[in-house]
Here is the input.
Amino acid sequence: MTVFEVLALLALGGVAGFINVLSAGGSMLTLPLLMFLGLPPQVANGTNRVAITLQSMTAVGSFYRMGHGNLIVSLHLAVPAILGSLLGAWIATWVPDAVFEIVLVSAMIGASVFMLLPQPSLSTRPLTKERLTPAIYVAMFFVGMYGGFIQVGVGVLFIVVLYHMLKIDLRQVNVLKVSIVLPFTFAALMVFALNNQVHWGVGLTLALGNVTGAFIATRVNMSKQGARWVKGITLVMVAAILVRLILY
Here is the structure.
């Protein structure tokens, strides 16, 4: 890797880690970056999971140290998500590059449109495993399968499922989201690694940036204002990347 490539991975990784914890869309920045740096789409897809896994470990650890974790609910929802992730990652290891690139562009556009939509404000409500219905377990399986396949925009799906099905506020969603993303992303990473589709040097460099951004974001998440401006920054960057991808 050149000095420029290392700096690009660290910088964009930091932005992505921050965005992933507070909102959604970090992988819309990092996955195309890995492809622009010359990694084949499937290898870029697998390598991106190194950063997401370590970023999620940082976020989960920080949230739990601050007393904001929900271990019982997280474990219940993580099981179907892991099963779905294994299936999705397995499919991603053999899908043709051209098909993957079409899915990537479509996912980025779809996630961007959703982020532009106004989101209702919900009050904080206690969340226990008794509130988990069969529908939420099924939804977690499909979210995990999608995340195992591509990861891009999976945070948006978590907002749809957790925010609207469980009726919890965005700060609770963010805490629960990273607790589920961690195990299902690790499961997907193992599938890609077993198929030799992970560039560990690039992945760990990107992860250093992601971890830093995630650590800062856990502090911002618990503030009263949160980071509503994050969506705007994300969408501007995604628009530029989409143009580059389409012309790629």
In short: The chain has a mean pLDDT of 82. The chain has one domain: 3-247. The two ends are 21 Å apart (CA to CA).
